[in-house]
Q: What sequence folds into this?
């Protein structure tokens, strides 16, 4: 069966990230996010046309996958519509840019461990859509029993058996959400995640609040409920000494101050980190754990004071959301998520947002140029999601990147100058919501073989 590759988590949500990671800019031929768009056709009978219909991924709508122009894939007529909303595992946070499709076939499972994420192959006679910024979708489909509904973004994938009836089919939230656990027998896959424990930036609380664990009344993780691996600092250090153990994970978090009990960042760890990321791993570091970024990937960024001590004092600042798709998602969030109250920062002044508890600064994120398989220059350097001034830096009044991500081989690294979690509290602050967005976006696939990583140094 002929298929067309579709990038996960791209389209309306990841134009800038794909560009930063070597993906093509939107054009009439590719559309947003580098997803191939079939050429237009004026043939009134699509079954007889040589190509499929136009796929407008820029606003989340979709259509038929193309057959490559050979005309041997007959589109299935539609007499039904599936409508619903894709949420995070907690069934509260809408997810933008998620892939939704119906197929008579079972989807390929998410590999259990690090891998080079290739774009999903959608059967050429299947209809699909990407969700809108508010998480909603409207999917045309043929009626029939015994079909499979697939919802996916990055390594989050949910498959549900479904009978589609003629007319409108309202999909229950529990059938269209991103799952919160790894349970392939139940049609659920999530990223394999390791978090090194730190009381200063408790990322494990954020993961629990989005539905990958249970939380207590204060918004803290209920120990033992997590659907990820929470490692002590010594165990985190041991993990980085063992490349095969690292390969069990899709994402590894090294939050602020977790580095204190992890031991020395020696050459074995540096080599393992680079190899694991090159193979497809997603590496997330925050503020004072910054040596795990700048020593691992030295030519991607320069931190303020890096030559002597990049660990700065505490500062708050007003950030500006730079990424248009991140901004659209934040603006589309329901009111209770935009402002949780209690004196916490809110999203009521977008694109400006208060960013608290910063402990690092970024001086520069230069271009990092490598050549792809065709010999073309590609910039795999950092994409800035949020910027702001750094009162602890010199000069103190210039805008600097605060949240960044870049590509290294098949994988990606991410860094924030601030804590992503501000202790136990009900609800999610803007910083925590931005973390969720990036967790999803760093899982986006490569629509072409990624270029090799640059030399270190």
A:
């Amino acid at each position: 069966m002929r298929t067309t590759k579709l990038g996960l988590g791209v389209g309306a949500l990841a134009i800038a990230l794909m560009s930063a990671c070597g993906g093509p800019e939107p054009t009439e031929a590719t559309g947003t996010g580098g997803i191939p768009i079939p050429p237009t056709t004026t043939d009134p009978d699509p079954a007889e046309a040589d190509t499929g219909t136009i796929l407008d991924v820029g606003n989340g709508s979709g259509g038929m996958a193309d057959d490559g122009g050979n005309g041997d894939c007959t589109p299935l007529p539609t007499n039904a519509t599936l409508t619903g909303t894709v949420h995070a595992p907690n069934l509260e946070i809408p997810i933008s840019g998620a892939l939704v499709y119906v197929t008579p076939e079972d989807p390929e499972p998410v590999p259990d461990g690090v891998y080079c994420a290739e774009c999903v192959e959608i059967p050429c006679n299947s209809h699909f859509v990407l969700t809108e910024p508010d998480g909603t979708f409207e999917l045309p489909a043929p009626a029939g029993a015994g079909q499979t509904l697939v919802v996916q973004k990055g390594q989050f994938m949910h498959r549900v058996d479904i009978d589609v009836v003629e007319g409108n089919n309202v999909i229950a939230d529990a059938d269209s959400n991103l799952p919160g656990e790894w349970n392939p027998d139940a049609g659920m896959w999530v990223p394999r995640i390791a978090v090194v424990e730190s009381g200063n930036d408790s990322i494990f609380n954020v993961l629990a609040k989005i539905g990958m664990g249970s939380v207590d009344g204060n918004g803290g993780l209920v120990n033992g409920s997590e659907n990820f691996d929470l490692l002590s600092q010594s165990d985190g250090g041991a993990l980085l000494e063992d490349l095969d153990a690292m390969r069990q994970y899709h994402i590894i978090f090294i939050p602020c101050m977790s580095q204190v009990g992890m031991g020395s960042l020696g050459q074995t760890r540096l080599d393992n980190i680079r190899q694991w990321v090159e193979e497809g791993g997603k590496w997330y570091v925050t503020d004072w754990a910054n040596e795990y970024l700048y020593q691992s990937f030295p030519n991607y960024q320069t931190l303020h004071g890096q030559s002597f001590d990049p660990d700065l004092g505490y500062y708050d600042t007003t950030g500006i959301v730079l990424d248009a798709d991140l901004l659209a998602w934040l603006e589309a969030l329901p009111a209770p998520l935009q402002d949780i109250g209690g004196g916490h920062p809110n999203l009521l002044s977008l694109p400006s947002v208060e960013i608290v508890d910063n402990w690092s600064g970024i001086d520069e994120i230069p271009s990092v140029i490598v050549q792809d398989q065709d010999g073309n220059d590609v910039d795999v350097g950092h994409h800035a999601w949020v910027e702001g001034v750094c009162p602890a830096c010199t000069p103190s009044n210039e805008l600097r990147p605060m949240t960044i991500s870049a590509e290294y081989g098949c994988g990606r690294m991410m860094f924030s100058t601030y804590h992503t979690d501000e202790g136990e509290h009900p609800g999610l602050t803007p910083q925590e919501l931005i973390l969720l967005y990036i967790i999803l976006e760093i899982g986006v696939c490569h629509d072409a073989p990624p270029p090799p990583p640059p030399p270190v140094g």
